[in-house]
Amino acid sequence: MNDEGELTREIVGGLSVPSRRDDFVARVRGNFAASERREVQRWKRRSYVLLAITLASLATTGALVAAPAATSGVVDFTVTCPSELRGDRTVFNLGANPTGPADVQNGQVVKPPPGFHAPLSLEVATADTIPVLTFSGGAGGYQLDRRRCTPTKHKLALTHKGLAAEGTYRQGEYLDFGTRCVGVGRVIFRARIESDDATGVPVHAQVLVIRFKTNRPLMYVDWTPTVVHGWSLKSCEKWQFLS
User: Where along the chain do its domains lie?
Assistant: First the structure.
C-alpha cells in the first residue's frame, strides 16, 4: 500500500500543470496579437480605398479636372479657399518633404505597423494648423477639404515665375520646404498630382498658390519622393510644417 502511494505521488509530482498566471499571460498575448492583426488589416483597407473614395468625391463636385486618357494616373484640379485667421492675421501655408519612394513589395505598398503612419509628403494649409490638401508618398491617394475649398474655373500655369527660389531639398537631408504668406485673404491653388497606376501612390506633384484678389503668385512647389524645389513671394515667411 505504501509502495502504491509513493508511486502515485511520483506520477503526480512529475506532471507539468501550467499556473493560472501563465495561462493569463498566454491569453493576453494571444489577444494582443489578434488585435494587432486586425489593426494592420484595417490600415490596409483604409489605404487601398482612399484614392478611389477621394477621386469619386472630387468628380461629384466638379473639383477634379479630367486628364487625357494617356495620363490616367494624373489628377489636376484648381480650387479657391479662404485664408483663416492665426491671431489677428490671415495665413496660408505650403509645405513639402522629400520622404523617399514608397516601400513596394510584390506590387503592393508595405504599410506601417499599428501606431505608425506614412510620413506626410505635402500639405496645403491655412492658419498654420488647418490642412486643406495632404498626401503621403508612402500611401495611396490624397485628401482634399472640399467643404473649405471649392472648384474654380481659373486657368493657372504651373510655373514659379515671379517668385524667389527657397531652395532644393533632398531625401536624407532631414530638411523640408515650408512657407507661409500672411494677410492674403482668399487664395486660389492648382494641384497636379501624378500617381503610380498600380499602387495609387503619388510620385510627382506641383502646386501653385495665388492671391484671389490680384492673381499674384504666392507660393509654388515641385515635389518628388527624393527631391523638392520650392519658391515663394519674398514677403512670405518660413514655416516648419512638420513641427
Answer: 31-238
CA distance 66 to 71: 10
Q: How far is CA 200 from CA 35, 79, 144, 223, in A?
A: 27, 22, 16, 16
Q: In terms of DSSP bridges, do strands 89-96 and 122-126 run parallel, antiparallel, or are they unpaired?
A: antiparallel
Is the distance from CB of 188 to CB of 209 less than 8 angstroms? yes
Helix count and strand count (H, E) for the chain = 2, 16
Report the distance separating Cα 103 and Cα 137, nearest Å.
Answer: 10
What 3 state SS string does 221-243 have? EEECCCEEEEEECCCCEECCCCC
Which burial class, exposed, middle or buried, applies to 46 when counting CB atoms under 10 A from its CB (0-12, 13-18, 19+)? middle
Q: What are 22-81's pLDDT values in tens digits?
A: 554 455 455 544 544 444 444 444 433 333 333 333 333 333 333 333 345 999 999 999
